[in-house]
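Researcher: Let's do a round of design. I'm pasting the structure tokens now; please hold your answer until I've finished.
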């Protein structure tokens, strides 16, 4: 069974930077997507960034040019470098892995708080 352990997050002033990391234990097989979602109070969880096995990436419009997602396939890790943070980036960030093993499966991390003060 795949488990995700997140690190990073915290409190930062607007304009600052943070880096989130997520390590997957267990096999996520060769066909997978790793990414980060976030959920702010009173809002739905949204996909922030995602990276596929072929290093194809997706970013939601509000973070383009500020956030960078990267992965280490050998170590089964994914990171999110967040620069020029804004108060509206404040949310709980969740690591997410989708992998194919007799069908698509999804695993979530426990979440890490990111708070950006103005």
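Researcher: That's everything. Go ahead.
Model: Designed sequence:
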């Amino acid at each position: 069974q795949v488990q995700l352990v997140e690190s990073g997050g915290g409190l930062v002033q607007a304009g600052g930077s943070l880096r989130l990391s997520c390590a997957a234990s267990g096999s996520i097989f060769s066909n997978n997507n790793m990414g980060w979602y976030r959920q702010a109070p009173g809002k739905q969880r949204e996909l922030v960034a995602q990276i596929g096995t072929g290093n194809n990436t997706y970013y939601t419009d509000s973070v383009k040019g500020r956030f960078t997602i990267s992965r280490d396939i050998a170590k089964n890790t994914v990171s999110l470098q967040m620069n020029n943070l804004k108060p509206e980036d404040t949310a709980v960030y969740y690591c997410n892995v989708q992998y194919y093993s007799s069908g698509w499966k999804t695993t979530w991390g426990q979440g890490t708080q990111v708070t950006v003060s103005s």
